[in-house]
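FW: tagging you since you asked about this chain on Friday. Here's the raw sequence from the shared folder, copied in full. Didn't touch anything.
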Amino acid sequence: MRIISYNILDGGEGRADPLAEVILAQRADVVALVEADDPAVVDRIARRADMDVVRATGRRHGAALLSRWPIMQSVDHTRLRAGATLTNVLLEAVVQDPAGREWPIFVTHLHARATEADEDARLREVEAILHITEAYRTRRRAHWLVGDLNSTSAHQLIDAESLKPSTRTEYAENGSRLPVRVMQSLFDAGYVDTLHAHRPDYARSAGTFSTQFPGQRVDYVLAWGVPVGQIRDAWIEHDRLAKYASDHFPVGAEIGSAT
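HL: got it, structure written out here
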């Protein structure tokens, strides 16, 4: 499976074709789109990629999952009581790979900005997400959590001069650091950052946001219950078209069968 997560910026209106070109270059089996607010854009990308699609409208921003494989079911958790604390969206979808294995995938977009108060808001969202995904962890069932988490891993080395100006201000106000509690809570729950697991040195320095000031990584492909040895590749797409198609770079991972 090759899976990518891509924040396409405010629905992607007027940018469907460049976004599709970036996505097609990843050769993905499954694509998670964040800020997928415009159904026409999502449908155009899905047609160009020849993928099935499900959408969740969310609150402020929506999400979508595109798949070359059958989508067996989906849930927009934002519309349910368990998702009441979510700022934007949590889409759950189950895809079936060619071998018949079903893969649950959760696509989310957490509260934005980089102050500790903002991190508190994200922690409340993560608590709700962990409650929703608890059934999979209890059953030891592998699944994915992907999207724009708007938080930084403690593994990442921050160069303040590379941060977006507004984030740089918040970094200084925080005492020359960015909040890491959200990501740590997910790691403590057993989620693995596929990029850091496969390319730790690269993950420490590579950013996904913003494309003009890529000093921070806020976009993740997290796996639970997937052996690290099955992660064949992980990457951030930094090509020129990706730099201008959105304000986030897409992040991806590839997993294979056990060796």
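FW: The mean pLDDT is 97.
HL: agreed, and The chain is about 30% helix and 25% strand.
FW: great, closing this out.
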